Amino acid sequence: METTRRKFLGLLGGAAAAAGGLGTPRAHAQAGPIKIGVLPIKAGVGALPGEYGLRGTLWATERINAAGGILGRKIELLVEEESSPKDTVERFRKLALQNKVDVIVGVISTGVGLAIGPVAEELKMLWLSWDGTTQKGVDESMPKPKYSFRSVDNEAEAVMSSILTAKYFKGKFKTVAGLNPDYSYGRDNWAAFLAIMKKYKLGVTPVADLWPKLGTTDFTSHVAALQQAKPDLIFSSLWAADVSIFLKQAHAVGLTANTKLVFPVAGLVHETLKKAFTPEGMILGYNSMYFDMPKPSPLLQQFTKDHQEKYKEWPSYESDHAYFVIAAYKAAVEKAAKASGGKWPSTDQIIQALEGIEVESLSGTRRYREDHIMEANFYQGITTHKNKYDFVTIDPLEVMSTKQIQKASGIGLYEWIESWKV
Amino acid sequence: MLGGVFHAATLFLVAAGLQLVFGVQRIVNLACGSFYALGAYFGFSVVTWALKGGMPQPLLLVALILGGLLLATIGLVVERLLRFIYDRDESFQMLLTFALVLIFEDVIRFFWGTAPYQLGNLYLVYGRLQVGGLTIPVYNLLVIAAAAGIAVLMGWFLARTRWGRIVRATAENRAMSEALGVDMRRVYAGVFTIGTALGTVGGALVVPATAAIHEMGIDLIVEAFAVVVIGGLGSMRGAFVGALAVGVLKAVAIATYPEIEMLAIYVIVIAVLVLRPAGLFGRATA
After folding, report:
1. A225 lies in a domain?
2. Domain identity same for A323 and A268
3. pLDDT tens digits for A395-417?
4. Domain that holds residue A404
5. Is the predicted pLDDT of residue A19 greater than 50, yes or no?
6. Are residues A103 and A189 in the same domain?
7. pLDDT, averaged across chain A
8. Which residues of B touch A48 (CB under 8 A)?
9. Do A274 and B118 count as a contact with CB atoms less than 8 A apart?
10. How high is the pLDDT of residue A136?
11. CATH code for the domain in which residue A329 is found
12. B254:A224 CB<8 A
């Protein structure tokens, strides 16, 4: 009888009353809104994905609150900032200890994520990361975390692009050049690309590998070097404003006319890839969310529409990572509460519910693996000018699951690629 | 190689602004990078606005230069603020101008947001040039010509005009020029505004070829300092040669051995500091 009463009140949004009445230890915390700490990057190159992440968070929160909150409790966001590892750890601590938030979402940089991981464990603070999982972040410092839930491996998109390169360009190129941002992500991507080319026995020769600093704004020297090296194909994991600057400068000297281009993650800044200088026929990746799906889900359709109306922009994938973590948290709380008779669950119970949880996100169904890593679909394709926009989109669209393009836990990236049967 | 010269052209403008202000006012103005970034954003806005108002596309360059010059009036305001610290220790001056860098970054965020701005394909409005199998956007050549023109103009202004002589005299000996009746306030305000204009015009000029983004200022300050160290603090000729050296060196490094792109520049910087501490064209001070 009592179980039913609890559940009833909980579902009605009377969780506070129920908990208070029953005198559970966390009664006070459950009385008010659910506090969610948010850590988006706000300055520098990362401000762009940071902003998209925040937009996804805001949209998810507005929707959930409009529908009555999570078990009747409204979400209150406490937005801080992701900057250097040291400062971000301080803000993480502040959110956990001073603001006493229920969960912290965000973080895009691997370096920051590496610093936050142990702190989340130490403070027993549930942290659902948006991004920041290059191999360095995956391998070493976060083995079997309890309180951290990580994003998809950052190299998954390079893996997919490499497979598509083999599919679309096999036999059409011999020499390759890399133009990748000079940090672990760029280095890992280029190495993964070369490893996969070798695996597919495509017999390619690298003729240049260039490492512009992240956020470079003048590529004239890189373009000149590429003109000299004359590669058949350029692989580039640039992802910020630098993509369009490079393409514009490359187009201006005729470099894009006859060179095949593979850009696994430039879809983050898809609106800057204007038709005027972005060619058709290049491989372009949108990570886990493509805004212009041929048959969009009602959720994606609504988000795209709201996003366009509010920001006058077509949305980008970091919003989907951010939407997913909030949606997963909500589903986990509800699932755990159901199991414990409608009572607001403890952090441990929420963590248990998050493991293996599957929810609908903007990009389709996504889930957390039991080892706390996201599982999602990735969207890439061949650029086309045949659309209603002034920038390129992709057609045909290729979809691959991280089940195929992300390594399992416990195995190194290159070891895993080596183990493929092709 | 030409890629390097294009980069050198913008680098020269910013470094020249830094040199002029230091030469006369003895202030190491870190905010020169911010003027560059602001110039880029403002240049973008001016051109977009002018095109909407019916400006023919080939007037792009004119609009950018006018935009840069218009924006340079903020130099007057900033100089008014700096007046409080002319007599303070250099470290205070650095701190204040660094504070300005941070403030201007937020100003940009406030007015333009975090997204980068681009001028679509206006870059190719002047067409391309085929030289011996190489394709060069004419715009690059125009920017290089504009920077060279400004260098000549600055040289003429400083060496041949009455105002230029006053500026040089002030740089040489402030107290004496003041005693001889030079209105120091006007000289400082004027010099600082010209220094600002060099940065804002430089920023505006690169926008069609690149984009206006937040970090562009900070990145350029670092390189401008390398230029200044190589060329010698306070020397215009130094800015010219230093910028050319850094730009071309960078291009050569990227084409031959990309790993040493940054290293190459700073090896030269260190060599200059060790062998000729005052820089190639600088004068040693006690």
Report:
1. yes
2. no
3. 999 999 999 999 887 788 888 99
4. 156-287+378-418
5. no
6. no
7. 89
8. 114-116
9. yes
10. 60
11. 3.40.50.2300
12. yes
Domain-embedded: residue A268:
yes
- A-B C-beta contacts closer than 8 Å: 122
Interface probe for B, chosen from A41, A83, A221 (most Cβ of B below 10 Å), is A221
Alpha carbon distance A402, A405 (integer Å): 5
* Interface mutation target, options B105, B122, B215, chain A, most CBs of A under 10 Å: B215
Cβ of B209 within 8 Å of Cβ of A44? The answer is no
Distance from CA of A308 to the nearest CA of B (A): 15
Domain ranges of chain B: 2-119+126-213
Residue A323 within any structural domain of the chain: yes
Picking from B135, B215, B261, the nearest residue to A44 by CB comes out as: B215
pTM of this prediction?
Answer: 0.86
> Residues A55, A83: one domain?
yes
Using CB atoms, pick whichever of B3, B135, B210 lies closest to residue A221: B3
B34 and chain A in contact, CB less than 8 A: no
B116 and chain A: CB distance < 8 Å anywhere?
yes
A chain contacts of residue B116, beta-carbon cutoff 8 Å: 48, 240-241, 244, 269, 272
Assess whether A185 and A70 both reside in one domain: no
How many domains does chain A fold into? 2
Average the pLDDT over A307-335 and give the result: 96
Q: CB–CB of B135 and A225 under 8 A?
A: no
**Residues in chain B closer than 8 A to A390 (CB atoms):** 120
Test B215 with A209 for CB contact under 8 angstroms.
no
B114 touches chain A (CB under 8 A): yes
Residues of B (167-186) whose Cβ lies below 8 Å from A: none
Domain end among A375, A395, A410: A375
Do residue A37 and residue A131 come from a single domain? Answer: yes
SS (H, E, C) chain A: CHHHHHHHHHHCCCHHHHHHHHCCCCHHHHHCCEEEEEECECCCCCHHHHHHHHHHHHHHHHHHHHCCCECCECEEEEECCECCHHHHHHHHHHHHHHCCCCEEEECCCHHHHHHHHHHHHHHCCCEECCCCCCHHHHHCCCCCCCCEEECCCCCHHHHHHHHHHHHHHCCCCCEEEEECCCCHHHHHHHHHHHHHHHHCCCCCEEEEEECCCCCCCCCHHHHHHHHHHCCCEEECCCCCHHHHHHHHHHHHCCHHHHCEEEECCHHHHHHHCECCCCCCCCEEECCCCCCCCCCCCHHHHHHHHHHHHHHCCCCCCHHHHHHHHHHHHHHHHHHHHHHCCCCCCCHHHHHHHHCCCEEEECCEEEEECCCCEEECEEEEEEEECCCCCCECEEEEEEEEEHHHHCCCCCCCHHHHHHCCCC
Q: Residues A121, A256: one domain?
A: no
- Whether A350 and A392 share a structural domain: no
Q: Enumerate the residues of chain A whose CB falls inside 8 A of the CB of residue B118.
A: 241, 244-245, 248, 272, 274
Tell me, yes or no, whether A292 lies in a domain.
no
| Average pLDDT value for residue range A105-121 | 90
Q: What pLDDT score was predicted for residue B284?
A: 53
Asked whether residue A219 falls in the same domain as residue A105, the answer is no
Is there a contact between A223 and B3 if contact means CB atoms under 8 Å apart? yes
Confidence band for B114, pLDDT divided at 50, 70 and 90: confident
The complex's ipTM works out to: 0.83
Res A337: pLDDT: 94
pLDDT in the model for residue A369: 92
Q: What pLDDT score was predicted for residue A30? A: 60
Chain A interface, mutation test: which of B141, B207, B222, B254, most A Cβ atoms within 10 Å? B254
Nearest-Cα distance to chain B for A28, in Å, is 39
For residue A333, the model assigns a pLDDT of 96
User: Worst-scoring range by mean pLDDT, A3-7, B36-40, B162-166, B282-286?
Assistant: A3-7
